[in-house]
């Protein structure tokens, strides 16, 4: 399946339709998106931390949800009303303070009305995931 939106088109659409994701300015970037998978980076910021110096759960959940939205849009095009219907996260290990968080999302099934995918969250250069996410998105009628 070929991508229906380039990274530049995704970024322009998201900045226009989902500006709150970029309100901190340049913290999140799309590194790749090909209609089947995407890789996103959230640059480290002290606001990501919870007490104890670990990356917070809400930070990880938001990045995973956003990565699923990006991979879905890359597959179906600019459908702003595609929405999360389910998101399940398993926290596996501590995300390191000072390290960027990477989200690697891939679509497992893309139907006419639902899309199911998974996201692996990584901390810095470590190959060991800090969280694993499964998510389902509802796709509106055309």
Automatic annotation (TrEMBL):
This protein's UniProt keywords: Hydrolase, Membrane, Transmembrane, Transmembrane helix
Membrane in keyword set: yes
Transmembrane segment boundaries: 66-84
InterPro entries documented for this protein: HotDog_dom_sf (IPR029069), PAAI_dom (IPR003736), Thioestr_dom (IPR006683)
Highest taxon of the lineage: Bacteria
Pfam families on file: 4HBT
Residues annotated as domain Thioesterase: 52-125
PANTHER family xrefs: 1,4-DIHYDROXY-2-NAPHTHOYL-COA THIOESTERASE 1, BLL4964 PROTEIN
The protein's name: PaaI family thioesterase
């Amino acid at each position: 399946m070929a991508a229906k939106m380039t990274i530049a088109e995704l970024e322009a659409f998201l900045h226009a339709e989902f500006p709150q994701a970029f309100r901190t300015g340049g913290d999140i970037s799309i590194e790749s998106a090909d209609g089947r998978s995407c890789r996103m980076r959230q640059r480290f910021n002290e606001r990501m931390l919870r007490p104890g110096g670990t990356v917070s759960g809400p930070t990880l959940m938001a990045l995973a949800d956003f990565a699923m939205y990006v991979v879905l849009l890359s597959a179906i095009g600019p459908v702003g009303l595609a929405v999360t219907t389910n998101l399940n996260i398993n926290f596996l290990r501590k995300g390191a303070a000072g390290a960027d968080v990477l989200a690697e999302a891939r679509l497992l099934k893309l139907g006419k009305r639902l899309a199911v995918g998974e996201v692996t969250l990584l901390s810095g250069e470590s190959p060991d995931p800090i969280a694993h996410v499964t998510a389902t998105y509802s796709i509106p009628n055309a």
